[in-house]
Amino acid sequence: MYKTACPACGAEVQFKSAGSVMAVCAFCRSTLLREADAVRNIGRMSEVIEDHTRIQITTSGEYEGKQFGVVGRIQLKYADGFWNEWYVMFDDGSAGWLSDGSGQYVMTLPGGTPSKAPPFEAIKPGAVIPWDGKRFTATDVRTAQCVAGEGELPFQVGPGWQARVADFRSDDRFLTLDYSEGETPQVFLGSAVTLEALKCQLLRSEDQVADTAGKLKGKADTLECPNCGSGIDYAPGKADHLICPSCHAEVAANAGQAEVLKKHDELEQAVTSLQLGDTGTLDGLKWQVIGLMRCQEFGSDEHSVWTEYLLFNAYSGFLWLVETDEKWTRTVVLNTLPEDRASSARFGGKNYTKQWDYGSEVIYAAGAFNWRVSIGNQTRITDYQGPDGTLSKEATAEEITWSLSTNINPDVVAKAFGKAAETVAKAGAAGEPSPLGGFAKVASAILIFLNIGNIFRGSMGALIFTALALLLLWLPVWMSGVSSGSSDNSDSDDGDDE
């Protein structure tokens, strides 16, 4: 271990790893560059944005049989969000990176320099490359800016430093090609992990989060919209891309300051079953609705509309509840990659059959999100139906994500959030009307118009004929509604016991 006094404030600065070339003074934020046995102050590093991560410098754990400790962090920001990269040092002197973004974690270790790799500009989400006997699929390709750092790091970063990275996945295995230092990438190999599987210790407590971020994890704060002055409820640090529910201005919250990013035309206020700030208990955990958005289908003959609610829990991260005109589902973003076979997919040793391929467009959004949501955002979605629910592949120009959705009984949702059963029983009021119901309405109007004269003249035959015809028209509609409700209930009775 190398120790020195900070040339700016005199506080002790430690370099725990022999491979660390840079450290950030914890007291004055000066960035110290190590040169042989001396250090040089190269300026101040920005404070990290406290995003309610459970990890901190001094957190320790175990990975692949080796003990590690967290010694540094850089924070990387892109156009629609940010993530943390934690620099970890193992007990055998080797080092690695623990990636932390949106409640998902990946541990990677240096894998050398490849003899041949595609140019960064040529890599697109969905591209497949062979590596170490496996086929890896590109799931995230982007350029990010280093905006903050703390602790010690193995290379020099500062204002203007860019990370050009392409992330690939194969099941739970992870491959990163890092082009930050030039056209020949550095390779990092690892796997998706959880803090529990890493046996992490010295994670941040609720009180520590309160001291640094100002609020307990998951507890909402209120920010004044700089465009219209309305209050916006949000979870400080964890979800900093906000949309004002009153004027629909996009707002970035940074260290308590708000900045209008883009103002949209006034939209009709959406009426939703759940509202921002609602709290409910599912699986014994307390969740809070921090964001909601309404989406519509495009690129097909269907014009479905549905509502997605973003829920947040302090230690479990994010969960989605989705309300359609047919049912409610709970959706979890996957940290492992299903095997995509075009017409089918395989996940968890089970097969899923391709059902739908369509586009999704955001038409309304309010609240806080862990990435930047804009009205008009479009995503290509492919749904696969299988034994454990619906696998969904969502693709944009920068990334591919997978999620798994399972049905949940509307009564469970109502009970969890303290709502009247009837407010959520008819899921997705914004959805398209039933085709059977639409036909029945038109046919009924024509039937009554043609027979109303005879009925008023007292014709019993016309009255009986009209009544029987109306019954035959509407019986399929009523039976369809009963069947749909029964199906939802039978599929979802165990939704709260997952």
Give an account of the 3D structure.
Residues 60-193, 275-410 form the DUF4178 domain. It holds the Pfam family DUF4178. There is one protein chain. With 498 residues, this protein is α+β, with helices and mostly antiparallel strands. It has three domains: 2-193, no CATH class; 215-425, no CATH class; 435-497. Helices cover 15% and strands 46% of the residues. It has five helices and 31 strands. The strands form four sheets. Strands 7-8-9-10-15-14-13-12 form an eight-stranded antiparallel barrel. The protein has an eight-stranded antiparallel barrel with strand order 22-23-24-25-31-30-29-28. The protein is elongated.
Q: What does the secondary structure layout of this molecule look like, with pairings?
A:
Layout: E1 2-5, E2 12-15, E3 22-24, E4 30-35, E5 38-44, E6 60-63, E7 66-78, E8 81-90, E9 95-101, E10 104-112, E11 128-131, E12 134-153, E13 162-170, E14 173-178, E15 186-193, H1 206-213, E16 221-224, E17 231-234, E18 241-243, E19 250-254, E20 257-262, E21 279-282, E22 285-298, E23 305-313, E24 317-323, E25 328-333, E26 339-340, E27 344-347, E28 350-369, E29 378-386, E30 389-395, E31 400-408, H2 410-417, H3 421-425, H4 435-456, H5 460-492
Antiparallel strand pairs: 1-2, 3-4, 3-12, 4-5, 6-7, 7-8, 7-12, 8-9, 9-10, 10-15, 11-12, 12-13, 13-14, 14-15, 16-17, 18-19, 18-28, 19-20, 21-22, 22-23, 22-28, 23-24, 24-25, 25-31, 26-27, 27-28, 28-29, 29-30, 30-31
Helix pairs in contact: 4-5
